[in-house]
Write a structure and sequence with these properties.
Elements lengths: L16 H7 L6 E5 L11 H11 L5 E5 L19 H4 L2 E6 H4 L8 E4 L2 H14 L8
Parallel strand pairs: 1-2, 2-3
Antiparallel strand pairs: 3-4
Length: about 140
């Protein structure tokens, strides 16, 4: 695969949806999302997710949503997960982190949520890509 990086717009660190639309081709197989974003703290709004849904709804594209900072939200903002949207549930991997949530980041302990069909594929790859758990686990 070839990664196509799309920079966020400073100073709000927002997504340029026209640029995303231009980057999606018939070869696109996955969109990777990071919200809340590290290191900026930017959070995708409900409208951001709806924009993504509109762009990929008729395409065979999977979403990998890095949501490891989902519980570290400030200023009364709301975190929307890819799993919050029925249109994305069947085609998304959502990655979370116990390490980030419970402030033991060095433990590097997290999880992935997806449909049984996607998890079957995930497990085929994961068995060759994981590393050992931390001593307490």
């Amino acid at each position: 695969g070839k990664a196509i990086h799309i920079p966020l717009n400073a100073p709000e660190f927002s997504v340029d949806w026209n640029q995303v639309k231009s980057a999606i081709t018939d070869k696109t197989r996955m969109v990777i999302v990071n919200t809340p974003h590290n290191p900026t703290g930017a959070i995708w709004s409900k409208q951001d997710w709806l924009n993504l849904i509109e762009l990929i709804q008729d395409k065979n594209i999977i979403v990998l949503s890095d949501e490891v900072y989902e519980h570290l939200i400030f200023d009364g903002e709301k975190h929307y997960s890819a799993l919050s949207f029925p249109e994305l549930r069947e085609r998304s991997f959502v990655v979370g982190s116990f390490g980030k949530t419970f402030h033991v980041t060095g433990w590097k302990t997290g999880y992935c949520i997806a449909t049984p069909e996607l998890m079957k594929v995930f497990r085929q790859i994961y068995q060759f890509a994981n590393f050992c758990g931390v001593t307490p686990v």
